[in-house]
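Lab notebook, bench 4. Still working through the backlog of constructs that have no structural model yet. Next entry is a single chain of 406 residues. Request: give me the structure tokens for it.
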Amino acid sequence: MTHKRQLPEQTATHIYKRAAVKRMEGSYGRNERDGRSARNAEQPVERPVVLQRVVTIPEADPSAAWNAFARRQERLRRTRTKQPQLSSVQQRVAPRTFAKTGSWATGGRMKSMQRRVSDPLSRSVPVRSGRRSVRRGFLWRLVSLIAGLIVLIIALSFTFTSSAFRVEQVQVVGTHNAALVQAIQRQGVQGQNIFLLNIPAFEAQVENLPLVHSAQVSKQWPNQLTVTVQERTPLLLWRTGRETYSIDSDGVLMARAINTPGSDALPTVTAPLTVIAQGNVKSGKVAGGEGIQVGMRVDANEIQFAKDVFERLPKITGINAFQLRYDGTMYANTMDGRGTQGRSKGSYVVESQDGWKAYLGGADDTNSLENRLLTLKAILDMAREQQLSLASIDLRYGLRPVYTLK
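Model written out:
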């Protein structure tokens, strides 16, 4: 580490340009110089001068600097070992004063003084312990809870007893029938609290009306209801004895024909039959349909079968003037429409103006209506070719139709 290394000598060179110094060369060359100067009076002569700079390194020992640094480190180390090292806790502890403890500080950290209580049960809780604040917070919470309950009771009482939340108006949407609108508005919901109103029960009550197919009720705060209804569409007319009723595809007797708009354009089924009423009305046979009421439900399959007869018979046979009658027993259900609708046992009869009758059967027959009407057309064509006078045609036996002559 202390080995001395001889560094080579360094030489720096630089070229400086200076003006040429006129020198006296003697008398012999004066004439020649004068002649040369006369020729070159306008052109000065310059000569380069080369100067050298020599840099030398003093002969010094590099280990001397390192020894000085080592001596300084040793002095610092000795100084640190002489001073006592205090812990972080000892550095933070300060001696207590007489004003805080009542006695002079001896030095170092003093131990905490414990209080002596003669009777632990009779000792008092100091104010700084926080016991009084806990009791005060509990009382405030209890008072706040009681006040909140009182406010809640007053709000509920106002909500359920105030007239501001009682239903005053029922708006009906989806129909222009004034009688139906009045019937819905007279269901007894006016004056009831809008919060306590049973919406599903009110919807079912509206759907029980004969003219209503479906209903949806919505609340309009604070005291209005909106009822959106879908009316039933009459499919045909059902004439029983003294009255004629409009009936839809579900078999519901909607209303009397005189109260049904557009009833003149609907086909009519005549039914001088025996009706058995079931459900809420006492059961019993009523001749001529005198016990039928608006709102009763009959077999929907039979109604759809009659509608198909009115549509397909003129297309297949070419007969437009005829009368359709129902011969049999009709079971009418008077329940609210969610029960089983009435089943019927009977046969449809086509009465022609030519005097013959065709027994088509009912909707439950295995033979389709299309086949029965094609068979009827074939028999009529045969009678027309053979000039036969038909009295009756029975198509209720499938592939074995029977006809009689007058």
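Notes after review: The CA atoms of residues 68 and 74 lie 10 Å apart. The first strand starts at residue 10 and ends at 19. Flag for follow-up if needed.
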